[in-house]
Structure formats: structure tokens, C-alpha cells
Amino acid sequence: MPDASPSAPSAPPATGHARLLVALAWGVHLYTALGLPLALLAVQALVDGDAGRFLLLNIVAVVIDASDGTLARWLRVKERVPFDGALLDNIVDFLTYAFLPALALPMLGLLPAAWAWVAAVPLLASGFQFCQAIAKTDQAFVGFPSYWNVLLLYLVVLQPPPALTVALLLLLSALVFVPIHYLYPSRTRLLRPLTVGLGVVWGLACVALALAPTARWAPTLAWASLSYVGYYVALSFVHHRRVHQGPPPGRPPPQ
Q1: How many CA atoms does the CB half-sphere of 90 hold within 13 Å?
Q2: Closest CA to 145 of 233, 244, 40, 221
């Protein structure tokens, strides 16, 4: 005998607009995933000994990483497709910001053969950082962010003595484990418009350096662009102090 009880209402069929939004959401994940073939091409550039091509590919990967999160939030990707975009983003980021720079250090001659093992230190530190539950808050990275590709760009352009390169790698690796709150430029509310604006100018300088790392003007531009790095570090310490001092009365604590 057929069940006479009322059946649950079926979900309304997806409209063309809804299907378009789902397709766009998958497109954002594909956009993020472009970092993987870029990483493969970057390895080939290292094999070919082409530092300029390697740096340029890395810059393109960073541009994708800097923009995919905004697109994902704008399209509310998490609500539209059953896919862990954050995990994919972490895989791409580890390759872009940690593994490839570590591989490039000895292959581009920035570390002498006797010190090639030092390249594994930031790689291990980044492996720890990427697996931390508190690697970042809503407004900050906790511990030195894995900006090894940025350091690599400056090392290629400025060509410091190997001893200084080793010292920087060890120092910054140690700072990964020190829970200082570093700016998350697009999210830290403290002076965010200024930080983002200066960051765009600095990013353009980095693109110019990646396009012509051996140009006569490159060292001068690199030293000038380090002023933004100084600003970033100084404001990070200000933000860190604000987090640990607590908010003024009547205001929510910064995250």
C-alpha cells in the first residue's frame, strides 16, 4: 500500500544564476591551483639556471595568492562548493614561499656547497609553522611568516656575503617559533589603507627587480624598497604590543 504521508518538499532546481555562481566558485579554486604548474615551471627555470625566469614565475604565483582569497570571500566559495580551498591554498603556499626558495638557495649559488644544508632549516621551520593551529589570527601572522621568496629576491639582487645569508636564514627560522604578531596586510586594521597602499608600491618594485635582477639600477631599487620592509616590521611590533596590552576600555580586543 503506498505511503499516504506527505513527502518532504524537494529542493528547488538550481537556477542559471546559481549554476553560474557555482562555476565561478570552482574557477576560483582552479585559479588557486595555477600555483602548482607555476611551481613546476619554476623548478625547470632553476634547472636551466635562469634566476630571472624563476623570480618572475614566483612573482606571478604571489600575485595569485594575494588575490584568490579576496575572490573566494567575494563569491562565498565555501558556501557553494564542497571543496577544501584552504588546504589547497596551503599546499601551493608551502611550495611558493618555502620549498622553492629553499631549493633555489644552493642552485642559484647563494649558499656555498659546504653550507647547502642550511637551506633545509627554513624549510623545516615553515613545515612547523604551516601545521600550527595558531599560525595566524584574523589580523596577523603568528611567528615570522614564511616570506622566504621575498628574502631570496633580495639575496639574488644584492648578493650579500654567504656568511650573512646563512645568518639571516638561521635568524628568521628561529623567529618562526617566536609568537610575535606580524601584519596581515589585507586584514590588520591598524593603518590598513597606508599599509596596503605602500605594499602596492613595494610589490611593483619587486616585480621590477624580478624582471631585471642584474640591472645596474636593481641594487639601488632593492635598498630603497627595504624601507617598506622596515615599516612592516616596525608596525608589526606596534600591533603585537597592542594585542598583548589589551584594548582601550569599551573597545573589542584586536585579534
Answers
A1: 14
A2: 233
Q: What is the pLDDT of residues 196-216, one digit of tens each?
A: 999 999 999 999 999 999 999
**Residue 231: inside a domain, yes or no?**
yes
Grid cell, residue 81, equals 562548493
Region label for 246, one of left (φ > 0), alpha (ψ between -120 and 50) or beta (otherwise): left
Sorted by sequence, the CB contacts under 8 Å of residue 78 that are 6+ apart come out as: 72, 85
d(CA 216, CA 50): 18
* pTM, full prediction: 0.85
Quote the strand ranges of the chain, DSSP E. Answer: 140-142, 181-183
* Residue 161 included in any domain: yes
Smallest CA-to-CA distance from 68 within 95, 37, 33 is with 33
With both helix axes pointing from N to C terminus, report the angle between 120-130 and 162-175 in degrees, rounded to the nearest 10.
20
Q: Is residue 253 domain-resident?
A: no
Range of the domain at 63: 17-245
Contact 58, 95 (CB under 8 A): no
Direct distance between the N- and C-terminal alpha carbons of the chain, in angstroms, rounded to an integer? 61
- Of the candidates 167, 175, 166, which has an alpha carbon nearest to the alpha carbon of residue 142? 175
**pLDDT tens digit sequence for 142-179:** 999 999 999 999 999 999 999 999 999 999 999 999 99
- Establish if 254 belongs to a structural domain: no
Count up the domains in the chain and report the number.
1
